[in-house]
Automatic annotation (TrEMBL):
It comes from the Bacteria. It holds the Pfam family DUF1272. It comes from Mesorhizobium dulcispinae. This is DUF1272 domain-containing protein. The lineage of its organism: Bacteria, Pseudomonadati, Pseudomonadota, Alphaproteobacteria, Hyphomicrobiales. InterPro entries: DUF1272.
């Protein structure tokens, strides 16, 4: 089950479970659409994967299966993934 992380890892913008601008990669790294497009050019800085819109969990299911409250923020800043 998706964690539904509460914020953008880049700018720390709130992304509640019903947010339509939340983007995730296959590892659930979570970014707002603005950062995913402008800062990251569609590439996850953590894994190098692409982003997809995060599904919206229906409100009744959020009550039964709550979203995560753990905020994740990239302390080193947010930018395109560096080549190894």
């Amino acid at each position: 089950m998706l964690e539904l992380r509460p914020n953008c890892e880049c700018c720390d913008k709130d992304l509640p479970p019903e947010a339509t601008n939340a983007m995730i990669c296959t590892f659930e790294c979570t970014f707002c659409a603005d950062c995913a497009e402008t800062e990251l050019a569609g590439v996850c800085p953590n894994c190098g994967g692409n982003f997809a819109p995060r599904p919206i969990r229906p409100a009744a299911m959020v009550k039964k299966y709550p979203a995560s409250t753990k905020r994740v923020l990239k302390a080193e800043g947010c930018g395109p993934r560096k080549a190894a």
